[in-house]
Amino acid sequence: MAKTILVVEDEQDIANIICFNLKRNGFETLEAYDGPTGLRLALEAAPDLILLDVMLPGMDGFEICRRVRAQSQVPIIMLTAREEESDKIMGLELGADDYVTKPFSNRELIARIQANMRRVSATTPVAAHPSAGTGLEISEEDSAVYKDGKPIDLSVREFDILSYLAAEPGRVVSREELMEKVWGFEYYGDLRAVDVAIRRLREKIEDEPAQPKFIITKRGMGYYFAKN
User: How many whole angstroms separate alpha carbon 207 and alpha carbon 200?
Assistant: First the structure.
C-alpha cells in the first residue's frame, strides 16, 4: 500500500512540483496551502509523513509542528530557507525529524523521505538492554521506554538514540557516529541536530535534564549512557 505524504506549502507551484515528483516515486499525496488546513489534515488524515514549510499564512510551520507533536509522532521534514539556520534548529527543537533547505533537488528530497520512512517501518530496533535499578527500562519487544514503570512518549528517533547509547553503557559515542547510525543518511546540515535531539530526549527521561544521570556528555568527544 502506497504511503501518503502531506505537503504543506503555500506556494502552489512548488507544492504541485513536489507532489508530481512524489507520485512518480510511488507516494500518495495530500496538499495544504495554509497553516490551519495543514494542521487539520495532519491530525485528521493521518499521513505517513509531513513535508512542512516554515512560512505559511494563518499559522506558521513551527506552530503546526508543535501541535502535531503533542498528539502524534508522525515523521516531519521541515522545508527551510538555506540562509535561515535558526529555522532549522527551531524546527528540530519543536520535534521535527529532519529539514531540507530550499532550493533542493528532487533526488535529495526523495532520499530524505525514504530514510525517514525506513526508520518508522523498521521492525527490529537497535539492540538495547533494560537498565535495572535505575528506574529506566528500554523494551525491545514493543520499542517502548518506561520510567519507574510509566511509559515515556518518545519519537522514533529519540528511541533509536537511547537504544544505541544504552546498548553499550560507558562507551563514548561521537556525534558523527550517532548521525551515521541513527539518522542513517548523509546529513546536509551541521551536527547541532544531534545536540538538539539529545536535549529533547533528556527532557523526557531525566529528573533533572541539566544534571543528567542517564545520558552523559563527554566534553569534546560525544555522549555515553551511564553504567549502573
Answer: 13
The verdict on whether omega for the bond into residue 125 sits within 30 degrees of 0, i.e. cis, is no
| Alpha carbon distance 57, 46 (integer Å) | 22
pTM of the model: 0.74
Residue 132, pLDDT score: 45
Residue 129: is its pLDDT beyond 60? no
Q: Cα 3 vs. chain centroid, distance in angstroms?
A: 18
Q: In this prediction, what percent of the chain has a pLDDT beyond 70?
A: 86
CA dist 196 and 188 (Å) reads: 16
Give yes or no for residue 105 having a pLDDT over 70. Answer: yes
Nearest to 7 by CA among 19, 24, 23: 19
C-alpha cell at 196: 538538539
Cβ proximity of 77 and 49 under 8 Å: yes
- Grid cell for residue 82: 538555506
Residue-wise pLDDT for 53-75, tens only, equals 999 999 999 999 999 998 888 99
Strands (E) in the chain, as ranges, are 4-8, 28-32, 49-53, 76-81, 98-102, 136-139, 144-147, 150-152, 215-218, 222-225
Q: What is the DSSP string of 198-228?
A: HHHHHHHH-SSTTS-SSEEEETTTEEEEPP-
